Records
---
Amino acid sequence: MLFVVLIFIPVLAAIAAAAITSNALRPWIMVIAGSLHFAVMLAILIFQPAPIWDGWVGLDPPGKLVLLLISTLFLLCSIYTVGYLRYRGERSNRVLIPCLSIFLAGASLVACSQQLGLMWIAMETTALSTAPMIYFNRTPRSIEATWKYLLLSSVGIALALLGSFFLVCATLKHDPYPSLLFSHLVRHAGTANAIWLKMAFVLLLVGYGTKMGLAPMHTWKPDAYGEAPGVVGALLAGGLTSCAFLAILRVDRVCIAGGLQTYTSHLLIGMGLLSMAVAAVFMLGQKDIKRMLAYSSVEQMGILALGAGIGGPALYGALLQMINNGLTKGMLFLSAGNIHRSYGSKNTDEVHGAMRRLPLSGTIFMLGFLAITGSPPFGPFISVFTILNAAFSRHFFVIGAVFLLLLLMVFMGMGRTVLVAVLGKPLPRKRPMNAYRDGWMTGLPLVVSFLLVLMLGVHIPPFLTHMLQQARKFMEVRP
Amino acid sequence: MHWLINTPLVIVLLVNLFMLGVSRMRSLIYSAAAQGVILSALPLLLEKRIGLMIIIVALVTAVIKGFLIPQMLHKALRDAQIKREVEPLIGFLPTMLLGALGTAASITFAAYLPVTQAGTSTLIIPASFSTVLTGFLLLTTRYKAITQVIGYLILENGIYIFGMLLLTAVPFLVELGILLDLFVGIFVVSIILNHINEAFSSLDTRQLTALKE
């Protein structure tokens, strides 16, 4: 029952938002939906309801983490959206708000899907609901970004579907009652055909990896994150990518049960390091702060894949990093959105001295940069350190060293752009004075996400540690 | 009884080659529609006991792939009033040859794959691989946005053919969901196509070059 409520709250919110005619009132629907969703999510985590619909919908330990992250992030973003859209009164949000709600419904369903096909459908729903959001600004550049996103993610998701079919096909021969349930697939993975299983994993990794933004399928990311409103960037970089990572983890678990641990681990590590390297290179000299954040997201996804590939304690680190990344990306994209609004530009040729002009957003942006690059005392420091530590203790010495080097490169590349944007004096203004000032609705979500990131760095609450341990144990299946 | 399932699959393979060689956009849309209708009949030919659900799924597939999606594409083509030629990056004959080679490779490759009874004695796997490949070729070697959408559609058709191996495993609800997502996807795409046309006065994806490093 709770699951049904969880998924239908945002669906109803989307319908309500489409029905409301007032442009100013509509964004509040999101806050209501976000709060209700958050409450139901907490209830689900506390009461642990049994799976419904023949086991199709239920929560596994990694799913719980993703659900917690999405719901929190969405609540923060919903408050921000109300504040943000006040400055965008000229533009109708009749498409944006329903799409955001559908996105929440789709993402929650991904987190709760225990069935391969259902998960694919939910994933595709989130992808489709995102496209109109990227196109919110109606500029030629945003159309281009939307088109590239749609095309690439459609192909990616199609490959994921083919991969899902391959996965089922692998178990078909020795399984008289084939099923798409993950628990069933894991049980029968032992007798599965290795060739089909390997092909399935590659396709699924490429498919859901496109959604996650792993290199070399990351090319839609800078365009989409660059042209979309900040809040959409936050939800994509924190929410959608985590859903895709969850999908890869679930598939990985089936393959590990099929005895392909080394195979999947090599692929994940390779993709992870490649993503980090690509991000590090493209971040150098990046002048557009939102595109820079997109590359930072590519790098983060690389870290997640790397952690999942190394496994064991690194997987614990990767899951913690997923939460940290989601919250920190919230901080960064929302404050970057404010800076963009105030300066009317997101290019460091024009954006200088954001800390003076927007003390709150500028400071949070700076702190967000320090957090995401793994500086103490923030959350990502702990998770990145856990992964690094695990890499060395599991004798991945070269990989650990390369990982460290890439982290350093990213820190330097990102730092150059961020420091130019944040420090110094604002340039004498060429454009007319902009009305944007940090208000409590566009400021509070930044502060809350900052506090959460800080808390995760200083003290991880016991319930979260427990959830992370459970998720790590869940992923350790015997072939 | 395998001829019953292999005949439509051979037609599908021929349609693939035709699509790679055709220069008029309208013919391309019609071929994609025809392929969709043929594919929708496959589950009826494969399944031994035909229930109500399977008929519904087949009908919905036929309507969406054979009618609704082609209608949307025709409308996009009309609204755009573009030159109704396909405009390839690689010429028609070379792509056809590539397609033929791909089909041959698919058949050889499929022979090496361990599969179930239905998989080995029918053309399902080679036809599926070849159709996926055709979709990719259309996606990558054609400039017009509509042609790329059709490429995606064909790619999806190829995956659908593979799904025929898993009729017992994949619940109909999932199949309907996949179809719905495909439909909504093409719907969103056709809206974006309209906006591309308004903003750039063209559906040529070579115009979309503002965003790059």
---
Amino acid sequence: MTSYLIQGARLLGEQTADILVDEGLIRRVGTDLAAPDGARVVDAAGLVALPGLVDIHTHLREPGREDAETVETGTRAAALGGYTAVFAMANSDPVADTAGVVEQVHELGRSAGWVDVRPVGAVTVGLRGERLSEIKAMADSRAGVRMFSDDGMCVHDPVLMRRALEYVKGFDGVVAQHAQEPRLTEGAQMNEGTVSAELGLTGWPAVAEEAVIARDVLLAEHVGSRVHICHLSTRGSVDIVRWAKQRGIDVTAEATPHHLLLTDERVRSFDPVYKVNPPLRTDEDVRALREAVADGTIDVIGTDHAPHPAEDKECEWSCAANGMTGLETALSVVQHTLVDTGLLTWRDVARITSATPARIGRLGTQGRPLAEGEPANIVLWDPAATTVVDPARHASKGRNSPYRGMELPGAVRATFFRGHPTVLDGALNTPSPDA
Amino acid sequence: MRHLLSTRDLSYDAALTILDTADQMAEVGHRSVKKLPALRGRTVVNLFFEDSTRTRISFETAAKRLSADVINFSAKGSSVSKGESLKDTAQTLAAMSADAVVIRHSASGSPQQLAESDWIDAAVVNAGDGTHEHPTQALLDAMTLRQHRARTEGRESTRGLDLEGMHVVIVGDVLHSRVARSDLWLFTTLGARVTFVAPPTLLPVGIAGWPCEVLYSLDQALEPAPDAVMMLRVQRERMHAAFFPTAHEYAREWGLTPERVAALDAAGASTAIMHPGPMNRGLEISSAAADSPRSTVLDQVRNGVSVRMSVLYLLLSGDDLDAPSTPASPGALIP
């Protein structure tokens, strides 16, 4: 295996150092390291070195919707976005609610070799919210599932949610809740507020998210389990999670890049590229989310990368599919909304995009410090670059990027996955040979 | 202006031009030969994804009086119901060289999507989209209101007249009403004051920023008497979704009952009674109200044809609607 000497990177945006990568590990970190024989030198002057990003919330669509994305295309997109691990949500077809399906997804990810693919198991059979799926079988499978979610659907039955929270304690699992009270969101098309009133689109009220989060943090407290909140989108949700954390409840929360940047004003275009669930909210919510990431109330960034084929988006708003792509633009949006605004340092970015998501998903080999002896999962990021987003050039099959045409800061120059550059010189290289 | 998608972005000047032109179009309707050659050779497609016989025949009559060729395209199977996609339908009409597409759709925003897409190049007229807008309905309502104003003020002509100083009360299911939205934007652009009256369940969250007064009591809204009261159609199904308990309770509280009409009479008010139709007699409007001399319901229907002639003529003749009011010259228009 080729070894690599990364020269002159700013570790977590701080001191400049060289990193020697060999045999899948970070062998040495220091200044003026000499390149061993046969080592390839990577000039990283001016680049920020971060631990490889971990996406706690990705839709890879395989099995079932290979027209939208495959594990291969989705993980290429992930590598290009600086990721070395993704958690693949369970709403495939068939649903990832058995050991067989999670092992299939895990194996597809392993043989693709671009990133670690960690399947998320469905909490309930078929995401139907009626009875628990065989959670323990998925945990004990070769996929070693630790995170369970009906994402796309809410586990709305309070008894079922309570049982799931209790059950996963047996193997240190976590339930990731898509918080959406179904009755309050019947037919919902966009955030309920000033804009929905004018556009005549059925509203998705903030309370439908907040009520479920409030219930679930109290359930987690009651049964002594941990709970993860997917794609938190409202100011009220932030207040509830902040309160829960102060109370000592073991809750973690995630925000998507799009909820940190875009608002429901975009819906005035009736362009379904802006249709997403939970919906784009208001300026006030965006501000609250950014502050919550800054003060630690929100723990992680999850992309909720949701690719769709053109035909599912080129139609009337009300029949368009929910979701937007995000893997290849996430770090740019994080820099734009959180770093360039002075809210976060790059060290903080490493925490919210890598270390904490790996910890929540109990993925021990990811999100590690950039230190000697650690797995060489590294992204080299050029914060001075700018990119005009062109979805046609994305590796994802999905062209439904809401940032189309926007100029965003930063660019991935290289991604090392287990010591192998999956991305080099800003372009896709080769998958990891030993994966 | 290439399209008519909403009244929210319709300028004062454009609105007056449409209304003044509609007045001239109305004269055609009074003649024995009700036809102008203005759009001879042009093709207008009525693309209706939602049933609405009234609106469709109004547009059809308007286009035919202007000598356009009219194609009625009843697209029941839209992409909403997993039928042909809006895109394919639009491209089909483009391939048939439609000059204007009049679109009615249950999905809010579809006319705007059609207009802003590269699927079709035709002028798009919104004939009602979901619970968003119904701009020609608002224009015919404004035409009716200014006729009412001219009548009560003893004016000879409505030309150039706006709605400055008028007070219009709009009653009912504002939440689900595209008419209420379009009326609000247009009436306020033309200088009127608007009051919405509804049970709180039938008002949208987010209404606070709208340029209107909001009341829960119809009796309070009718005191002092407004220039017009517009009763919105209430769908009986709404009560099953708990928007109101029973039709009887709705009619008692928010219906234009014989007693409320009598109170207007007793006060000597000149209040016009309007309804966009079709009416639910006995629910939002009593027969006493619908059949009273105050009712402008049939004027509204008549004005609908004139307004739609005006819109089709102005969009297809390529006049700049945002220029100050200059109705098409009568000489050119009416031979």
